[in-house]
């Protein structure tokens, strides 16, 4: 369903309530005729340092996600996008989640470093990684894509939005 200003597509951005920069990054990649509507996943248990606390968080996340989706259902969303950080030096239990994801899509993971070391795909969506990725690309001489940027590109591509955007 499209609205008057969003005559091409309306997306829901599903994000944890702890994220502070994701909406700004997605709006920075906004193209004409598209709108982003945020649904927040509330968490009372944001402790992710151990596998047990990560599991408790995931149980709560799954129930709260339904409320986040419901919170924007009247906007008649065309496509849902979920952004969530997966790992950091503070959340080592999330590193295995990242390894599992990339292994599942047939990528070889040789090491994880949390946020201590620049990687080809920074896995934290709550980072201001877009600018840093562009700088690293020049320094490393190879493509470095922030996960939030890749997520926006994917959402646009799945909806036949082919606009050229920088970053």
Automatic annotation (TrEMBL):
Domain of life: Eukaryota
InterPro entries to which the protein is assigned, alphabetical: Iso_Racemase_Enz_sf, MaiA/AMDase
PANTHER family with a match to the protein in the record: BLR3294 PROTEIN (PTHR40267)
Protein's recorded name: Uncharacterized protein
Organism for this UniProt entry: Hyaloscypha bicolor E
Classification lineage: Eukaryota, Fungi, Dikarya, Ascomycota, Pezizomycotina
